[in-house]
Amino acid sequence: MTEDVNSAAVAPEVTRGRNFSVAGKVVIVTGGGQGIGREYAREFAAAGAIPVVVDVNAEGVERVAGEIAAAGGVALAAPADVSDPDEVERLVATVVEEHGRVDVLINNAAIFSSLKMRRFDQIPYEEWQRVMKVNVDGCYLMARAVLPSMLEAGWGRIVNIMSGAVPLGVPNYLHYVTSKSALIGMSNALARELGGDGITVNAVQPGGTFTEIERETVTPEGKERVIANQCIHREGVPMDLVGLLVFLATEASGFITGQTIACDGGYTHSS
Asked: Does domain 21-263 have CATH number 3.40.47.10?
């Protein structure tokens, strides 16, 4: 049941025609040096935003920032390890010094493609720890670092990229699945903590998304099984996710927070 409310009395003023725009927004994209993150950064730039391309791979961030500049956009290349608190603080300080603020954080950096499928008791503990440090600690550290800028502005958007492997309970990737499931709880709790400060926090759940990054564990037969189980029978590509992320970075999404939104061609269904 819904109740009609005089929206003019409860909703903030939104400039008509600009509520779907990210023009001029400073958007940090972690894991932006390759794969899906590369496409996020490029498309945010094409939409008029200023992406900060973050990746542990310095060569990758320079390449992506160069691609954006060649296309007429503006980007900041920022090599950093998101699991290192000191590097994260220096990164955000540099962004604020360069651009004055951080409007949007896309927590995309994660260890996945390099992982080998193993039964959980065969996963080396050091590998487990590294996955948790990057995939979970990295999101926490980045959110903590950008918070002062967002609080000062009274506005911000945080989007945590989780995975369709979580609801499917994909076996032999227990560290990855566990780390991505943590982002659901993190997003829900942060949404409660920050909603009164004009900051929204959501999680996006991609499905099987194929990029230039090769993965030994993905076979042609496995890819066909994924596609067959989707409602939309084609392979997912990074561009399929861009529209949702850009929307979540705008004024138009300001009443959406604490949500996990699947973008997987209908592979999974929420009740």
From this structure: no
